[in-house]
Amino acid sequence: MAAVEIVSFGYLHAEPPAAHLTIDLREHFRDPHVSPELRYMTADDEPVRTAVLNTPGITELVGAIATAVAAFAAGPSAGTVTVADGCAGGRHRAPTFARALADRLRELGHSVAVSHRDLHKPVVHR
């Protein structure tokens, strides 16, 4: 199985990192930032992970991206497959999604590294 690198990020901090697949979670999935009780938490906190993973469509998207990664890995060129997933600030949706995708890919036998570019940056006030 292929090696996979997953990078979560926030679009409001900088340009997306280079990747084979870039997933934009901003428009289609509810932002926990809008809930005052979740705003200053991150994906390191269970209430945030629960809110994100219970959002309709997230589980299906994790499965679809895992399938896409397998397609990239099946190609004739060897090498790491890089997935970047972003939300507005990079503290809630993107890192939670990255961890869920990593778990799914590991279940499928891939070697996975995950990094969170913007997880520990301050909350973006908007």
Distinctive features:
four-stranded parallel sheet; 4 helices; 34% helix; 4 strands; single chain; 126 residues; alpha/beta; 20% strand; globular
Write the layout of secondary structure elements.
Elements: E1 3-10, E2 21-24, H1 36-39, H2 46-53, H3 58-73, E3 81-87, H4 93-107, E4 111-116
Parallel strand pairs: 1-3, 1-4, 2-3
Helix pairs in contact: 2-4, 3-4
Overview of the structural elements:
This protein is of the alpha/beta class. The chain has helices at 36-39, 46-53, 58-73, 93-107, and strands spanning 3-10, 21-24, 81-87, 111-116. A 4-stranded parallel beta sheet has the order 2-3-1-4, with helices on one face. It is globular. The mean pLDDT is 94.
Count every helix, treating DSSP H or I runs of 4 or more residues as helices.
Answer: 4
Oligomer: single chain
Number of strands: 4
Order of helices and strands: EEHHHEHE
Mean pLDDT: 94
Label the overall shape. Answer: globular
* Distance between the amino and carboxyl termini: 41 Å
